[in-house]
Design goal:
Strand content: under 5%
Protein name: Geranylgeranyl transferase type II subunit beta
Shape: globular
Keywords: Metal-binding, Prenyltransferase, Repeat, Transferase, Zinc
Pfam family, one: Prenyltrans
Number of strands: 2
Order of helices and strands: HHEEHHHHHHHHHHH
Family: Belongs to the protein prenyltransferase subunit beta family.
Domain Prenyltransferase alpha-alpha toroid: 27-65, 112-239
Distance between the termini: 34 Å
Radius of gyration: 19 Å
Length: 322
């Protein structure tokens, strides 16, 4: 069975396949130019790191450009990042990037690793499990986080490991669901957000794929989720992170749009307005800005921009889009 992330990569690549060739080449050039001498990729300041390298490789993969020298150099960088203590975000970035290299370029950076490395990583992740059923951001964390629970489930799936006691994870996510729609990130959060809602829905879909006996999303929860996400669309056309933030951004637009597509309700959005918003952030030299306020760019938001273009094409192909 292919993983959630492998399926997502294929879907996004399919969506981008409908773009004009010159647009694809423009953005591929942006990512290729961003690679540093050590083979990694960085943010707007500083050197290469796992987080931004993962986003750049995602962008190159869905554009069909993750092969040859760029992949070999990236593999060298990732091998150099395998030792030492890392956060769950770093673990996710490393394993996702490694999976992309293996699938896209046939490069297995773990080929010469300790045969027990998968078990060792899984054991570390299990130390992040908390009594509330979720996973914490770090060993010192006292409570589960919706987003980091999503990341742990993703990494375990990439490691070909089952999530222990999946039913408790579902119960944890239910405890983070806002009665008025959407999901909260942590117990102390005062309002639901687009990104934790997307993380929760994706986590539930992954767990149900592996354990079909888990309860499915009921009609009322689905309708509240759809209403919440559609409320996040602003007059600009993109989606915002939560009700307190007036400005739309590409991250929230991608995660919210993907969730609506997965719930077979992408056409609930004003799709033409969303397309206008995404195109407005596309740079002439390739890449994307994050939002209307942004005066720069990076590989993370450029991936989200490409992802949004892919969703718009997938939504157009799968259902009416207004």
């Amino acid at each position: 069975m292919s993983s959630y992330l492998q399926n997502l990569t294929v879907r996004l690549a399919t969506g981008l396949g409908n773009l004009p060739e010159e647009t694809r080449e423009l953005h591929a050039g942006y990512f290729l130019r961003a690679q540093k001498e050590d083979g990694g990729f960085g943010g707007r300041m500083g050197g290469s790191d796992l987080y931004y390298t993962s986003f750049a490789l995602r962008g190159l993969s869905i554009l069909g450009q993750l092969y040859g020298p760029v992949a070999e150099k990236a593999a060298d960088f990732l091998r150099g990042q395998m030792a030492g203590h890392q956060t769950i975000v770093d673990f996710f970035s490393l394993f996702y990037a490694a999976n992309l290299l293996k699938v896209s370029a046939g490069i297995d950076i773990f080929q010469d690793s300790d045969p027990e490395w998968r078990d060792n990583v899984a054991e570390f992740l299990h130390t992040l499990r908390r009594e509330d059923g979720g996973y914490a951001k770090a060993p010192e964390g006292h409570a589960g986080s919706t987003y980091h629970t999503f990341l742990v489930v993703l990494v375990l799936e990439l490691l070909e490991k089952e999530t222990p006691d999946a039913k408790s994870v579902v119960e944890f996510l239910e405890s983070r669901r806002d009665p008025e729609g959407g999901w909260r990130e942590i117990r102390a959060s005062k309002r639901a957000g687009t990104n934790p809602s997307a993380a929760a829905v994706a986590t539930l879909n992954i767990l149900r794929e592996h354990e079909p006996d888990l309860p499915q999303m009921d009609h009322d929860t689905k309708e509240l989720t759809l209403d919440f996400l559609c409320e996040m669309q602003t007059d600009e056309g993109g989606l915002r992170a939560n009700t307190r933030i007036p400005i739309a951004d590409l991250l929230s637009s991608f995660t919210g749009g993907l969730t609506l597509l997965d719930l077979e309700s992408f056409d609930e959005l004003d799709v033409s307005l969303l397309r206008k918003f995404v195109n407005s952030l596309q740079l002439p030299e390739g890449g994307f800005q994050a939002a209307a306020w942004d005066d720069a760019h990076d590989v993370e938001y450029s991936f989200y921009g490409l992802g949004c273009l892919a969703l718009l094409n997938l939504g157009k192909g799968d259902q009416a889009n207004g």
